[in-house]
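the three lines:
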Amino acid sequence: MDFPTFLIQLLNSVQYGLLLFMLAAGLTLIFGIMGVVNLAHGSFYMLGAYLAYSLSGLLGSLTLALMVGTLLAVAFGLALEWLLFRHFYQRDHLDQVLLTFGLIYVFEELRSMLWGDDVHGVAIPALLGDAIPLTDNLSYPVYRLFMSAVCVALALGLYLLISKTRLGMKIRAGAANREMAEALGINIKLIHAIVFAIGVGLAAVAGMIAAPVSSVYPNMGSQVLIMCFVVVVIGGIGSVRGALVAALLVGLVDTFGKVLLPAVSGMLVYMLMAAVLLWKPEGLFKQ
Amino acid sequence: MRTRFAFTALAGALALAATATQAQNQAPLKVGFMLPATGTFAALGDMIEKGFKLHVEEQGGKLGGRTLQFFKVDDESDPSKATDNVNKLIKRDQVDVIVGTVHSGVALAMARAAKDSKTLLIVPNAGADAITGPQCAPNIFRSSFSNWQPGYATGVIAAQKGYKRAMTITWNYAAGAETVKGFTEAFEKGGGKVMKDLNLPFPNVEFQALLTEIAALKPDAVACFFAGGGAAKFITDYAAAGLKGKIPLYGSGFLTEGMLDAAGPAADGIMTTLHYGDSIETPRNKAFRLAYAKTFKLQPDVYAVQGYDTGLLLVHGANAVKGDLNNKPALYKAMETVTIDSPRGKWAMSKSHNPVQDMYLRVVEKKENKVIGVAAKALADSGAGCKMG
Amino acid sequence: MSTPKANMEVLPRSVRLLLVLALAALAVFPFVGSDFYVQMVTRMMILAIFAMSLDLLQGVSGLVSLGHAAYFGLAGYALAFLMPQNEAASVWLTLPLSVLAAGLAALVIGFFVVRTHGIYFIMVTMAFAQMVFFLFFDNKVLGGSDGLYVNFRPTVNLGTWALLDLDNKKTLYLVTLGAMLLVYGFLRRLLWSPFGRALAGIRVNEHRMRALGFATFGYKLAAFTLAGALAGLAGYLWGVQTGYINPELMGFHMSAHAIMMVILGGMGNFAGAIVGAFGFELVLHLFKDLPQVGSVQLGKHWQLWMGSFIVLVVVFAPRGLLGLAGWFSRRPEDGDV
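prediction for all of em together
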């Protein structure tokens, strides 16, 4: 592999990794703060994509669709938390696994009934439709740079929220010791609802901005779900910083694996996970 | 007295037997559909079923003088449930004929069960070469294609255009591998050389790494096999990476079936080969498309045609045995020797019960697959490994 | 963050009576039922064995594995590889080898996996199962995405005398029933043995067990291996019955369904696993065969009904069907910890 190609593959790795991070961040937050395993996380990603498809058709612009879609997804997350999830924080992981597994079925079927089973596309906004030529053969789409930029912005926003705001402080307190935080007057129920909504929102936004490049089709959630879990486990459950590092690692392994070791590329990421867990059974970073 | 009694009894018995056989032939013909109703292939299953039902309607709802009774099972595109699901049709509903399915893994399990129970099975899509290869059987017919066929036709075209170095890219699963095999066979026979076969795990859709590879190695052309949501993504990624227009993209027609809306202008100029094209300019195809659109308010595609042809095949067989599907030798003979007058053109069965058909060359123009010629005429797959006839 | 549930290890008398009745019905069934239903019940019994093996891990030892189907599928593949192209191999050869293969895989994977805890354990078992899935799916040599045929049913011969004909559906049914009962008996014995008690202790409080001097890693690994081997037995029988093995048998959905079966029936006593397996399959078939009401094909939307059913069970009946039955008979059970 010559140097320019290597750089481009590096760019590909980072872009894929950042998108994975956005999904994994939501999952690791929900798990880290509330201790809930959520197998239906991929369904929120799918929800975002389908919302982008419907809303951009209805409203005529992807940007508007993004804004409205995020609000809708967050509202949905809040409703789901209030209805179901908040009763499961103290339950066995087993029950959570099953609950969310059942939800996957329900969401898939609802999606089929509401939107049908066809493959749909979402148009890239004209402003971002160009490509930057990198070599005489290969160009890099501006839209992918935009996607990476959004992921980085959200990552920064999340970091600032958790470490520099009062809300973030309360979230961290609730995660460390729920009873104590409640005793100190923090409204834990509200905190949990907000965290859950943020998690769902992140997944949905990931789906929305990925929709133009990934198309919108049935079962798209299950494909990213497993990758997402691998990222969370490698990074350390509950650690957003860990999720970022792990996501970039997975991006690297997946991208270069496809090119250098195609015969085993399907297994490589899992082998990475096994190796990390052998070295550090609780993932790379603590919460 | 006794003789009269015996005579009456005999007459009565004969009359009863006659009515019973009459009743047997008047009893509805049971057709079992095992198609995907949920999941990624649900839309395809729907089109196939609609195509079949259209032809039945054209026949006045009767096959071989018998009315039809339909049974349906959702195959969930899951091979591990396949045997249980097909047994519902074979054992519980006791259908006379099974129509299915889309996913090759499921179809292979179905073929096994059908072989055991000797029920007539018509495969309206699944392209696994093995179904009309090592797993062939007198009671298994296919009305669609084998994976090798469109791949081979693509190779013929690529070689004709004078390309010398090609790369292939597909998912690492049987359908992809078999299509690529067909392409490689034809391309190298025509004087070309496949530089490298790229593949990624199914159903991974992160193509960027491999697109970069393609750009780095600069082949004369790229032949790909993707279908469904992944196909749309590949087309848009290919264009977004700037490869569109620089390195010609070819593929088996499934690349551009059913997702031209999703892919948009990125798909313009892609050349594919398939045994059907929406714009085939024959009266037969035009009439079919009109009838389908009128009945279902949908535009038909290759899956609808495959379903329709399944109907044509079954009707011909049922009529030949006057509705007595238990007359298996005559039934199979009829289906083996018929020439199907299909919207895709006339085709007949190969020795291994796969269609011998023309492969059309199509190019994408403004969200439509335009047929611009025939890539390979009367292409028959080798049926290698089939121990029938 | 999760409190291990107290299990219903001792079955209330009413439940035991019901189970005996069910057993009698099962024994008589092949002689009265049609071919289709005999096959269906055989299938359910195979899944019951699979569920019981998971119950050993999940219900007794408290180890929630999202990758248990890997060993189920591996034994099936072992059978497919061992069965020659032209004639049937013997059950005396294929059965032990397949079960051994599954057990060995569980031992190796367990060595990596058992050192993790809680949610990590769940995720890591899933990851390894996915790895095995891709190994088979991506490689044509191992059958690839299309899977492998099992060319014949194994012979059950003593010398030249054919003891049993597994091609006969009734015989296969009874053999599977026998296997299910053997596994049940074995596991019940195990539950009350020192080994089983140690596993239960580990489930309730691993630290305490270690403080008491138990080598918990060894116990957990042994349980993991044994569970894998038993799952392999079920997988072998699946291969014998179906004649076709594909990678999805090792997949995520298969593992999740197994967990569902164990939970549905009630964990920790193995009878629940059997009840759960039957119940789950029956409910699934019920939903898929729903009739058309007006213009709505109810059966087509089975995923919605199934998903809702799973959610309702988890919310309202966390102790499963046997738990409900036990609640009705209101006998004091061991330890509402």
